[in-house]
Design brief:
2 domains, Aldehyde Dehydrogenase, Chain A, domain 2, 16 strands, single chain, 43% helix, alpha/beta, 14 helices, four-stranded parallel sheet, seven-stranded parallel sheet, 19% strand, Aldehyde Dehydrogenase, Chain A, domain 1
């Protein structure tokens, strides 16, 4: 079978499965999620073995450290996959919920009902855990999904998909509700992006080149974010001990994620105290700092930041640094250089905190918390299919509700329009 026919048939099966998923009862969907979680834990060694094949191939192929980190499965990450599925199972099922029920002067009752999107296509790189996370959320929200992972993670993805298929069938749901594209041929991506007959929305997760390609070629709506240029601003009225912990964690807890801090902004009045503590900590963690002229006077060993540095998502132990006068200058910097992903202020002043929350135009805005919390699992969504920095149709981590739409329903008892 050629690639075009293969993708067409995959889409056709997904559309048929989507009709079954849309009417699936909550307890059946939850049973599939619970069963899949158990199978994933039981098959831990098989998943690790499949992942080791991918890791070896990727290492030999020169994949960079950030992507290798995303690709690797560990027992802890497998546990987290299973836990994410079980958390999704515990969440309230949004499908069929009716809101805003109101009787009109004509006597009809009008409401809005939450419904699945239909068939969700997800194109992603490296992270095999996306296979389980995305499948679980699409399943619970009554959607079918077509998953196209990167060639570097093909063995891991297929091994996880086998667990999902077994869980679906055990619960009486169609295995076609979750399909992983089994070819690594790049033509498959182009064919999927043209499959508007069957695919209702595309979610790209990966590097900027992938997302730009999907945005350019897709013939259906796209839920996406381009960059994760996340900021932490340490205010002059911050608890400085707290500020140091937050900034250090936001950068070093994990380097290769889109919610990692890439730029630290520090108020001029506290810069000396803050950087005297943070400088050695980052140096010990082998984090390269590229700073403005003022910050280089306080940390003479750091490199000079360029204009491009402030616009860069490093996904590596590199960060930019700038000393600013106040919150206004910090917010101005974020507006110019940020990517509308996640930005944080550390302050004890409630008025400034409220200003930051209100005025910073990002999908997640935080007060006194690490940017690393910008994640569907940490937000109580169970998992996420991705993070959107768009303003339609979803924004921030996309969980169950982001994978649904609403339709109007009208209930009458014989009314006719005069």
């Amino acid at each position: 079978m050629d690639i075009k026919t293969y993708i067409y048939e995959t889409g056709k099966r997904a559309r048929n499965a989507a009709r079954i998923m849309a009417r699936a009862e909550t307890d059946i969907k939850n049973a599939a999620l619970e069963k899949t979680a158990s199978i994933i834990l039981d098959r831990q060694q098989a998943l690790l073995d499949a992942n080791q094949i991918d890791m070896h191939t990727a290492t030999e192929g020169g994949l960079n450290m950030a992507l290798l980190d995303r690709l690797e499965l560990t027992p802890e990450r497998i546990d987290a996959m299973a836990d994410g599925l079980r958390q999704v199972a515990k969440l309230e099922d949004p499908i069929g919920n009716m809101t805003k029920l109101k009787q009109q002067p004509s006597g009809i009752k009008v409401a809005q009902m939450r419904v699945p999107l239909g068939v969700v296509g997800i194109i992603y790189e490296s992270r095999p855990n996306v296979t389980a996370d995305a499948a679980g959320l699409c399943l619970k929200s009554g959607n079918a999904t077509i998953l196209r992972g990167g060639s570097e993670s093909i063995n891991s993805n297929l091994a996880i998909a086998a667990c999902i298929h077994e869980g679906l069938v055990a619960a009486g749901l169609p295995a076609d509700a979750v399909q992983v594209i089994e070819t690594t041929d790049r033509q498959a991506v182009g064919e999927l992006l043209r499959l508007s007959e069957f695919v209702d929305v595309i979610v790209p997760r990966g590097g900027k080149n992938l997302i730009e390609r999907v945005s350019s070629e897709a013939r259906m709506p796209v839920i996406k974010h381009l960059d994760g240029i996340c900021h932490v601003y340490i205010d002059d009225l911050a608890n400085l001990e707290m500020a140091v912990k937050i900034a250090y964690n936001a950068k070093t807890q994990r380097y290769g994620t889109c919610n990692t801090m890439e730029c630290l902004l520090v108020a001029e009045a506290v810069a000396k105290t803050v950087l005297e503590k943070l400088g050695p900590m980052f140096e010990q963690a082998h984090v390269e700092i590229r700073g403005c002229e003022k910050s280089r006077k306080l940390l003479p060993g750091i490199k000079a930041a360029t204009e491009e540095d402030y616009r860069t998502e490093y996904l590596a132990p590199i960060m930019s640094l700038r000393i600013v006068k106040n919150i206004d200058e910090a917010m101005d910097h974020i507006e110019v250089y940020g990517s509308h992903h996640t930005d944080c202020i550390v302050t004890e002043d409630q008025q400034r905190a409220r200003r930051f929350l209100r005025e910073v135009d990002s999908s997640s805005v935080m007060v006194n918390a690490s940017t690393r919390f910008a994640d569907g699992y940490e937000y109580g969504l169970g998992a996420e299919v991705g993070i959107s920095t768009d303003k339609f149709h979803a924004r921030g981590p996309v969980g169950l509700e982001g994978l649904t739409s609403q339709k109007y329903v009208v209930i009458g008892d014989g009314q006719i329009r005069q």
